[in-house]
């Protein structure tokens, strides 16, 4: 299996002409320039990304990527690995937070199982890919083979293709995988050459002793991995199946000119991998919220990202991004529907 084209191909650039036209329109609307703050910039960025005079965030395509993590053998999670599969079933039944939020937003929701330890069998609405029965224990050996990481990247790229075919105006990726805050933290440490103590957090609810143990597991994994910063090598050695699929989806969306609303810590680490591989992908990313997971700030800073919300959320699933969608919709409505000074017969400061 070969890597998706989006892994190596140049990333398109948002349309500069539409950006300038959107900036010009913002100066004509019945408000002091800049008075709507970041809502103005959101609308301008979306106009450039969508190459349109009327940016929109009505057609939202969501995908939750799930997979198990062999590093759970090290005792780094407060929850058993079986919860991954149980939550996939909950997604299928519509009972999870992202299920509720996707209905609220009238968004399309896909659920993909990249690989659980226990086979799940058929679940309605779940794309059961089962690339591997979870990853290997990253503290002791490479988490994935080249074929496995390639398959996960291709699975994510295929989601981006489906989103493009459906006319998506915005993409949101979510994650589910017990142990994946450890995986995300070690990936970020390797890519940023940062200290595990700065990036490891409580995840699903570890106490201080649990976090200290997590830090030591991450140190062992980094020692095993060495100094290789190549994104594919890092992802293969240390990553998770769902994080690789998220990376593939983000790059696939950028390649297809679909704006992405990035969720919390796990998805932001996938975004970091994507940006380190193709720096141009950064121009297609909006960052939804600041996670309560402590390592998120370091990852956001590395991409010069300012999240829209700070609500203390740390659930994952794409839930924080889903909550932020209405901000993008409001930004588009204001940009598209406000009167200009001339339309409203209102004097502007030049008058």
From TrEMBL:
Q: What is its EC number?
A: 2.4.2.21
Going by the UniProt record, its keywords in alphabetical order are: Cobalamin biosynthesis, Glycosyltransferase, Transferase
Catalytic reaction annotation:
5,6-dimethylbenzimidazole + nicotinate beta-D-ribonucleotide = alpha-ribazole 5'-phosphate + nicotinate + H(+)
* Pathway info: Nucleoside biosynthesis; alpha-ribazole biosynthesis; alpha-ribazole from 5,6-dimethylbenzimidazole: step 1/2
Annotated active site residues, numbered on this chain, are: 317
State the Gene Ontology terms under molecular function: nicotinate-nucleotide-dimethylbenzimidazole phosphoribosyltransferase activity
Q: Which InterPro entries match?
A: Nict_dMeBzImd_PRibTrfase, Nict_dMeBzImd_PRibTrfase_bact, Nict_dMeBzImd_PRibTrfase_N, Nict_dMeBzImd_PRibTrfase_sf
Q: Which family does it belong to?
A: Belongs to the CobT family.
NCBIfam families attached here?
A: cobT_DBIPRT, PRK00105.1
Q: What is the designated name of this protein? A: Nicotinate-nucleotide--dimethylbenzimidazole phosphoribosyltransferase
């Amino acid at each position: 299996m070969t890597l998706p084209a989006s892994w190596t191909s140049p990333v398109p650039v948002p349309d500069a002409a539409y950006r300038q036209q959107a900036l010009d329109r913002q100066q004509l609307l019945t408000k002091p320039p800049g008075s709507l703050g970041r809502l103005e910039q959101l609308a301008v960025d979306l106009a450039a990304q969508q190459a349109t005079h009327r940016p929109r965030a009505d057609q939202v395509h969501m995908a939750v990527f799930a997979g198990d993590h062999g590093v759970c053998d090290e005792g780094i999670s407060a929850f058993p690995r079986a919860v991954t599969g149980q939550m996939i079933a909950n997604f299928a039944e519509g009972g999870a937070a992202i299920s509720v939020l996707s209905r609220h937003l009238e968004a399309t929701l896909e659920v993909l199982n990249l690989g659980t330890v226990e086979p799940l069998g058929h679940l309605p609405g779940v794309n059961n890919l089962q690339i591997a029965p979870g990853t290997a224990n990253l503290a002791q050996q490479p988490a994935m083979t080249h074929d496995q990481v390639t398959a996960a990247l291709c699975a994510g790229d295929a989601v981006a293709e489906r989103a493009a075919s459906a006319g998506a105006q915005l993409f949101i990726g979510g994650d589910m995988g017990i142990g994946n805050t450890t995986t995300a933290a070690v990936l970020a440490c390797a890519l940023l050459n940062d200290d595990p103590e700065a990036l490891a957090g409580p995840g699903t609810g570890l106490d201080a002793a649990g976090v200290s143990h997590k830090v030591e597991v991450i140190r062992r994994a980094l020692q095993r991995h060495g100094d290789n910063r190549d994104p594919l090598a890092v992802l293969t050695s240390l990553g998770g199946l769902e994080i690789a699929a998220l990376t593939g989806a983000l790059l696939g969306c950028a390649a297809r000119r679909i704006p992405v609303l990035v969720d919390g810590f796990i998805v932001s680490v996938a975004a970091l991998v994507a940006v380190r591989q193709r720096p141009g992908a950064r121009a297609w990313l909006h960052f939804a919220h600041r996670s309560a997971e402590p390592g998120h700030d370091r990852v956001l800073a590395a991409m010069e990202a300012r999240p829209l919300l700070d609500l203390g959320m740390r659930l994952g699933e794409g839930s924080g991004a889903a909550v932020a969608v209405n901000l993008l919709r409001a930004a588009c409505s204001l940009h598209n529907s406000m009167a200009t000074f001339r339309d409203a017969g209102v004097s502007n400061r030049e008058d």
